[in-house]
Amino acid sequence: MKKRKKNNFLLTDNQMAEFVSKGYLIFENIIDNKTNKKFLSEIGNTSTSLNKKNADQTWLAEHYNEIMKSSKIPLVKAGTPLKKAYKKNSALNDVINNPVLSGAIKSLVGDRPKLDHHFLHITFPSKYYHDANQKISQGNHNDCVIDPREKTFDIQLFYFPTAVEKNMGGTRYIPGSHFRMVNELAIARYHNIRGQKHVVCPAGTVIIFHHNIWHGAGINNSKKIRYGFKIRLMPTQKQVKLWTKKTYKNNHDEEALYWNKGIEKNSIKEILQKTEPWFEADSGRLDILNRIRLWRHITNDKNFDAAYWLTRIENDYN
Amino acid sequence: MKKQDILILYLSNSSLESKVIGWARHYGDKKKIGMAGDNDSPPYERGIEAIHDGWRLFQSSQLEQHSKGDEYRTGYLKYEFFFEKIK
């Protein structure tokens, strides 16, 4: 891996289209165990016994505060360039400089993103709480107030230094929800959405989410603590062709609709038109239009279309 | 004392016959809690099946005109149906 040039780890066209379509990319087991252990050691206090008999939610709150005070996770001012956010020999520096992740970050938000914020999420086993409110999962939400940006997007890296097993209540997320302009927990009424997923992954997994994806934390029904470290990055440049130097042709041969041999498998057009199980019959089509619009933007390919979705409504002679 | 159970369904279009795409349960019995992510499988395939199963529909969302300039913006789920059972 080390012998490859850094640029070789930029995302492929298909990966970029997957991100545009689904709103996330999963890099399973991408961080090695040595770095995962180093990260846990830098947090500190992670070996505290979970079998502590007198543990209650007061103890847990104090424990959390202790970790926040004593950990080596740095205080980073909002807007700090990512390159200056973490000390050279720190685990987090190793994480963001992992060649694959570094290539993905560059592909999505460029080579000089700023750090918006980062946070260590610690989810204790629910049995330690006597307050019923702590035994309820977090409602679905997105991580922003109403965000009117249509072309620019932030990314959020979710780093899981330990394995997340099924009963640990890993983050629930709704694929393809990132174009939906809602206001944070306003969507909490939607308890379950067809096609929802829950993070279950080996240690060292990183998921890169579009900032607007709908998600929420589950209840930890295991005996283990669940750790997740989130890093939100914002671009400082136009997100156009950051992963490639290829010139996308602006004059496309359109395919026959709908009497045809089917869309080419794994093509950009197929990826952008994959519907989600929760798509409404009508507005799901608008989500596809919005994917095509974002693809046009990031490729600077203004005439790209799939199944004539946009060309049809742009044919206006008035 | 009789208590109210609530079922909220989100459907794929404005017809009760259409597919369930989202759902939530709330219980009159305080020992039961409905919460986010509590079930990955919908309670019914289609909205009308809730009626067949004895749920009483008491509210559904209106169809709203798309506002000019915002026709292609997507947001909240549109087809919301509230049901109840009194137990």
What's the short version?
The complex is a heterodimer of chains A (318) and B (87). Chain A is built from eight helices and ten strands.
As a percent range, the share of helical residues of chain B equals under 10%
Could you tell me the strand content of chain A as a percent range? 5-15%
CATH fold call of the largest domain in chain A: Jelly Rolls
Structural class of chain A: alpha+beta
Structure description:
The complex is a heterodimer of chains A (318) and B (87). With 318 residues, chain A is an alpha+beta fold. Helices cover 25% and strands 14% of the residues of chain A. Chain A folds into two domains: 6-234, Sandwich (Jelly Rolls); 248-318, no CATH class. Chain A is built from eight helices and ten strands. Chain A starts with 12 loop residues before the first helix and ends with a helix. Chain B has one domain (4-64, 73-86). Chain B has one helix at 48-52, and strands at 4-11, 20-26, 56-60, 80-86. At the A-B interface, strand 6 and helix 7 of A face strand 2 of B.
Keywords:
heterodimer, A: 318 residues, alpha+beta, Jelly Rolls, 2 domains, 6-stranded antiparallel beta sheet, 3-stranded antiparallel beta sheet, 10 strands, 25% helix, 14% strand, globular, B: 87 residues, mainly beta, 4-stranded antiparallel beta sheet
Furnish the topology, listing elements before pairings.
The complex is a heterodimer of chains A (318) and B (87).
Chain A: H1 13-22, E1 24-27, H2 33-43, H3 57-70, E2 80-81, H4 91-96, H5 99-109, E3 114-123, E4 155-160, E5 172-173, E6 192-193, E7 197-198, E8 205-210, E9 215-216, E10 226-234, H6 268-273, H7 283-299, H8 309-314
Antiparallel strand pairs in A: 1-8, 2-3, 3-10, 4-8, 4-10, 5-7, 5-9
Chain B: E1 4-11, E2 20-26, H1 48-52, E3 56-60, E4 80-86
Antiparallel strand pairs in B: 1-2, 1-4, 3-4
